[in-house]
Design goal:
With about 290 residues, this protein is α/β, with parallel strands linked by helices. The chain is built from ten helices and ten strands. It folds into two domains: about 25-130, Rossmann fold, CATH 3.40.50.10860; about 135-265, NAD(P)-binding Rossmann-like Domain (Rossmann fold, 3-Layer(aba) Sandwich), CATH 3.40.50. It has helices at about 5-25, 40-55, 70-85, 105, 120-130, 135-150, 170-175, 190-195, 245-250, 265-280; strands at about 30-35, 60-65, 90-95, 155-160, 180-185, 200-205, 220-225, 230-235, 235-240, 255. The strands form three sheets. The protein has a five-stranded parallel beta sheet with strand order 5-4-6-7-10. α7 (about 170-175) links the parallel β4 (about 155-160) and β5. α1 (about 5-25) runs parallel beside α10, α6 (about 135-150) packs parallel to α7 and α6 (about 135-150) crosses α10. The radius of gyration is 19 Å and the shape is globular. It starts with a helix and ends with a helix. The structure holds NADP nicotinamide-adenine-dinucleotide phosphate. NADP nicotinamide-adenine-dinucleotide phosphate binds next to α10.
Length: about 290
Amino acid sequence: MIDGKAFAAGLVESIRADVAVLKASRFIQPGLAVVLVGEDPASQVYVRNKAKQTVLAGMHSVEFKLPAHTPEPALIALVEQLNADPKIHGILVQLPLPGHIDSTKVLDTINPDKDVDGFHIINAGRLAVGLPGLVPCTPLGCIMLLTDALGDLSGLNAVVVGRSNIVGKPVAQLLLAQNCTVTIAHSRSRNLPDICRGADILIAAAGRPEMIKGDWIKPGATVIDVGINRVPAGDGKTKLVGDVAYGEAQGIAGRITPVPGGVGPMTIACLLRNTLTAAKRIEGIG
Ligand SMILES: NC(=O)c1ccc[n+]([C@@H]2O[C@H](COP(=O)([O-])OP(=O)(O)OC[C@H]3O[C@@H](n4cnc5c(N)ncnc54)[C@H](OP(=O)(O)O)[C@@H]3O)[C@@H](O)[C@H]2O)c1
């Protein structure tokens, strides 16, 4: 099992140490602003968690909770205010936004150098052409777990199931940058089980509970399960499962991330890492 929770805890600890040095030696405290619009319960939990972890890492944390009916111009004005705020090095606008707000317009208002989610079109472009930028947190977390587990990924066959702008496409770009041979599969792909069977590295990011069966996995392959799906657990309760049938895959894969406790904790750790990276770049350090 690849223990994402333990790896993320170690990463947060090293970020905390870096932040402490930055504060002591340069009097700089990395700052993250998180903006939530509306009352979506899952988003409220994410935002609370992000703010808590930011403070634990020794960073300056600011939260903005705006009502669901906030007009788009007001949200854009807030982002512009944060762009100009020297205490803020990272800006995260929690998605999804209410339907009357154009998410792309809002995300593209964020200063790309403060875009710690890595969703700005400039950062997507930088990733595509191999320039340094800010990389989306979940894909970054996947690559960190993979390189920690396998070392050099060069020449390995990687299959990514899913092609979203948030996970599938950026993780495929990062694997390519690591010299993998990359296949991107999606809902129109033919013969998905056979495509998966060719993978030395299989990244599941389809959002389909336990879709990937044990016999789709090459023996010894490394499986990174990004999916987070809430399903009935009986007794009226629910539980979280990934996109991979974990019980079946366990005995076949060489290494596999569990859900929960795999990729999930890496996402917040990488958000903190991106905030530290942004702070250093903005302040002209390293
Ligand atoms: N661990 C974390 O921190 C984290 C972060 C982000 C997301 N997630 C989870 O990761 C999963 C994916 O998220 P996302 O935002 O990328 O989702 P998304 O935007 O819904 O994209 C899903 C992708 O999977 C593909 N797909 C759907 N059904 C498929 C099937 N039956 N066969 C093959 N491909 C299929 C879709 O193909 P088409 O393009 O053809 O429609 C699409 O490209 C979700 O469970 C989400 O909750 C976890």
